[in-house]
């Protein structure tokens, strides 16, 4: 079994940033990554200073190169389970030992099962206006869903276009929400959505179950965020009422030696935010390791 100061589970912006910080602090680090980043469908990321417009996979490739440059171990595999101690078991049969764990496994976007959404996700069926709103500014935009969260999403997206239509689908907005939408000049179309209309590799509109087609250039969908937290459950970390792991500002969980960063900790974290969380968690982990080293150095030693 290979022994490391820190095993990082998840090789996105949070995990790779944490690895570089720890490696520069002369820690031994392994990063285990399954190769399925949440933002893989996106052609570019935005809002990351000096990296605006870079493809997500390009950022990961550069980050992996930096980890290797500092002597980190990259393992393309998935973790099947982990036990306090810490013993990390991989699907490929390998076992890793670690003094500390950082879990940066991200989340999964649960979106409506409507034809066209999965196929165009991250391209012109979008979630985050701060990530993609500028690229579709001024275009006729659609927002899917009429519940409270979708209404708030539509009110936000109105910042990027004067032509925003909210499609209620199976929801019925309250009178108060209808008033807010009207105040912002957001059109409301009721009726079940049948599919996203795609022609020539572009979203062209939304088709309703009654056959109506409303022209749109892009569609925003607010997904349900599902944390990839099975490993954290296995380790016994406390979670809140919504299933998210409880942690402090530096990612410390209820299990000593286990921290979280990125979307596994914060569903609102963008790439740059996740990287910052990874850096902060790494610095905290190194401080813990120093405390452990001091405790070991000061503990009484008994010979034979």
TrEMBL record:
Where the record annotates domain FAD/NAD(P)-binding, the positions are 4-277
Task: Tell me which Pfam families the record gives.
Answer: Pyr_redox_2
Signal peptide interval = none
Lineage runs: Bacteria, Bacillati, Actinomycetota, Actinomycetes, Micrococcales
- List the PANTHER family hit by this protein, alphabetically: THIOREDOXIN REDUCTASE 1-RELATED-RELATED
* Gene3D superfamilies in alphabetical order: FAD/NAD(P)-binding domain (3.50.50.60)
Residue intervals passing through the bilayer: 6-23
GO molecular function list:
thioredoxin-disulfide reductase (NADPH) activity
Catalytic activity annotated for this protein?
Answer: [thioredoxin]-dithiol + NADP(+) = [thioredoxin]-disulfide + NADPH + H(+)
Q: Which InterPro entries match?
A: FAD/NAD-bd_sf, FAD/NAD-binding_dom, Ferredoxin-NADP_redctase_2
User: What does the UniProt keyword field contain?
Assistant: Flavoprotein, Membrane, Oxidoreductase, Transmembrane, Transmembrane helix
* Protein known as: NAD(P)/FAD-dependent oxidoreductase
């Amino acid at each position: 079994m290979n022994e490391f100061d820190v095993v990082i589970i998840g090789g996105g912006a949070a995990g790779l940033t944490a690895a570089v910080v720890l490696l520069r602090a002369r820690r031994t680090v392994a990063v285990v990554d399954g190769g399925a980043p949440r933002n893989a469908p996106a052609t570019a990321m935005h809002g990351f200073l000096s990296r605006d417009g870079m493809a997500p996979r390009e950022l990961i490739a550069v980050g992996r190169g930096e980890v290797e440059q500092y002597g980190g171990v990259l393992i393309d595999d998935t973790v099947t389970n982990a036990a306090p101690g810490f013993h990390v078991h991989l699907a490929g049969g390998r076992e890793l030992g670690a003094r500390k764990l950082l879990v940066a496994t991200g989340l999964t976007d649960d979106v409506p099962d409507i034809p066209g959404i999965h196929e165009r996700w991250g391209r012109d069926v979008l979630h985050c206006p701060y990530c993609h709103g500028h690229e579709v500014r001024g275009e006729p935009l659609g927002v899917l869903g009429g519940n409270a969260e979708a209404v708030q999403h539509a009110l936000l997206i109105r910042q990027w276009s004067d032509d925003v239509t909210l499609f209620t689908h199976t929801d019925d907005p309250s009178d108060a929400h209808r008033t807010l939408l009207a105040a912002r000049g957001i059109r409301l179309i009721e009726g079940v959505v049948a599919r996203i209309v795609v022609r020539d590799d572009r979203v062209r509109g939304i088709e309703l179950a009654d056959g109506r087609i409303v022209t749109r250039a892009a569609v925003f969908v607010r997904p349900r965020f599902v944390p990839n937290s099975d490993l954290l459950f296995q380790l016994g970390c406390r979670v809140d009422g919504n299933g998210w792991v409880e942690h402090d500002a530096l990612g410390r969980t209820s299990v000593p030696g286990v921290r979280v960063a990125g979307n596994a900790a914060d569903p609102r974290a963008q790439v740059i935010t996740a990287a910052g969380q990874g850096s902060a968690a790494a610095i905290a982990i190194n401080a813990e390791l120093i405390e452990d080293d001091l405790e070991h150095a000061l503990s009484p030693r008994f010979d034979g």
